[in-house]
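Support request, please re-run this one:
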Amino acid sequence: MMTEHEKLLAGQDYDYRDLELQSMITNGKELVHEINTENDQEKRQQAMHELFAKVGQRLTINGKFGAVYGKHISFGDDVFINGNCYFQDSNKITLGDRVIVAPDTKFYCGEHSEDATKRFGIREDGSHYLITYTEPISVGSDVWIGGNVTIIGGVHIGNNVIIGAGAVVVKDVPDNCVVGGVPAKFIKSLPEVKND
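Re-run finished. Output below.
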């Protein structure tokens, strides 16, 4: 039988009241608070390594940020996260190398049914609960995500991509391009990046 955490990561209906998930959320809140308020850089770095699944070299979080679990987030090398970014990491969020995330960007892994009659369930004890499904988000390397962008669960963003400010990304984005708008659409191609 799957744990509620395993169900969450598999994109199945799960019970967020589960003790393991609640413990992860509490731990995540404490570490996010520490990262957002700690002035000692060594302690701040230690909290980042405790919170995230993977921390590449030279991760910068510039200003306040938010996350639910933290343990589902992985960062490559030379990632820069600007202020007021939020990671609703009810599934895995993976950022590659050399990723820039501008202020106010949101990553949302959770989703609900389009059918309003399937958004709430009833447990055996008669209590009601919100039905949530999750999908991962992945971002390749050499990506610049503009300010106030929203990225929805299930999206893969390729390598060497620019996402224009204010975009809402609901579909995969291929390598070597600029996208923007609501919903985000192809704007132009970019020359391929050749890294050593």
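Residues 19-37 form the longest helix (19 residues). Helices lie at 4-9, 19-37, 41-51.
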